[in-house]
Write a structure and sequence with these properties.
The chain contains 15 helices and 7 strands. It is α+β, with helices and mostly antiparallel strands and 399 residues long. It folds into 3 domains: 107 residues, no CATH class; 88 residues; 165 residues, Orthogonal Bundle (hpI Integrase, Chain A), CATH 1.10.443. The longest helix has 20 residues. The termini are far apart.
Length: 399
């Protein structure tokens, strides 16, 4: 068993005590020529380990090696790339020596073979993941992670790499336009996604272990206090294009989530009793829910014509396809309507805050509001309530 260093010039492995590289070029115009690189120039050496393992304990699944006469060898020679840490190389050699001495099967360290970008790409290729509702959001997270995270071997990934990713993302300008910089909640979601990817890969034995145990801390305060005044709502209704105005009105009058609205089917709309009955697979909480329709919401739905190209869905695109995400033209038209209405720092999801706040001020019991908007507990409903100074003035009218 021994430790080797990698020549940065020809990529061959040499003894740490070697002065010049004795390897030869394996590719390009210089193929077969001696390297003779001065190894003392290396500032950050890449360490490898070289060891022999008994054939009976070799558990990598690779084909058995042959001896000089073509028979299966009794011992197999293996090499592993460790990275820039000599301590890690020494630790891995001690681990291998202990495993062999205890007659345990030696499994190859997958983290020494898999790169960060490979495991991210592998996750998106899983059929189970592609069938998830959040797959579109996962692809957005994937693009940012691949763009800023170094494509290291998983074994070399450290906490400071994740901290650098966090700092870089928090400094970037926000794409939503609601704030100057990327929101901490967005960065926290991306890192949480990466952690989920690694946990999934570990469960499916694609990696050997979690490369990091500690994760960056991000202070997130995503409580929103933005609701529309009556005049702002009137302006927004006037300036939004018809197809997105109807979605906005349903959100404002029912408190439904954006994803739930996009999935409404005509068969779920009960005009007679005034309800939309959502299936469990359409809601965030994975439980079926009946949503009450007020007179304004019923009027909006009755104005929407059924598209003959997609008779099932209520909201479809101009080419007759059902919407899957609130992106593209929907997002552009929504932002354009906000600008024309002079409304700043307002998201589509804030329409739920508007609904909950209006209902609570109207004296509707919290448990009914909670059931209508699909909250699992009353604490979340409490967070969605926004009280401003104009509401507090009403306290002076009592008595």
């Amino acid at each position: 068993m021994r430790i080797l260093i990698e020549c940065p010039n020809c990529k061959s492995r040499q003894k740490p005590t070697a002065i010049t590289c004795k390897g030869k070029y394996r590719y390009g115009a210089s193929k077969g020529e001696s390297c003779n690189y001065k190894l003392k120039k290396i500032r950050l050496p890449i360490y490898w380990i070289d060891y022999d393992v008994p054939a009976a304990l070799e558990g990598s699944g690779r084909p058995p090696q042959k001896d000089g006469v073509g028979r299966p060898a009794k011992r197999h020679r293996r090499r592993e790339r460790i990275g820039a840490s000599r301590e890690a190389a020494e630790h891995r050699l001690r681990e291998i020596a202990s495993t062999i001495s205890e007659q345990r099967v030696l499994k190859r360290d997958r983290n020494a073979q898999v790169h960060v970008h490979i495991v991210l790409q592998w996750y998106l290729q899983q059929r189970e993941v592609q069938n998830m509702k959040s797959y579109g959001r996962y692809k957005d997270d994937h693009r940012n992670l691949v763009r800023l995270l170094p494509n290291l071997l998983l074994r070399e990934l450290r906490l400071h790499h994740l901290n650098e990713y966090r700092d870089s993302r928090l400094y970037e300008p926000s794409k939503s336009g609601r704030s100057e910089r990327t929101a901490p909640a967005t960065v926290a979601h991306e890192l949480s996604y990466f952690r989920s990817v690694l946990n999934y890969a570990l469960r499916h034995e694609f990696i050997s272990e979690m490369p990091v145990q500690a994760w960056p801390k991000i202070k997130v305060d995503n409580k929103r206090d933005r609701i529309l005044t009556a005049s702002e709502w009137a302006k927004l209704e006037r300036n939004l294009p018809k197809h997105i105005k109807e979605m906005t009105q349903i959100a404002y009058y029912t408190g439904m989530r954006q994803g739930e609205i996009l999935q409404i089917e005509w068969s779920q709309v009960d005009f007679e009793k005034g309800f939309i009955r959502l299936r469990a697979d359409q809601t965030k909480s994975k439980t079926a829910r009946a949503v009450f329709l007020c007179a304004e919401a019923i009027e909006v739905l009755k104005r929407i014509p059924k598209d003959l190209r997609c008779k099932q869905r209520v909201f479809v695109s101009t080419v007759g396809r059902p919407y899957t995400r609130f992106t593209g033209s929907l997002q552009r038209d929504w932002k354009k309507g906000l600008v024309e209405s002079g409304i700043e720092d307002f998201a589509f999801h804030d329409l739920r805050h508007c609904y909950v706040s209006r209902m609570r001020l109207a004296g509707i019991p919290d448990f009914l509001i909670q059931r209508q908007v699909g909250h699992k507990d009353g604490k979340m409903t409490e967070r969605y309530t926004t009280i401003d100074e104009s509401d507090l003035i009403q306290l002076g009218r009592v008595g």
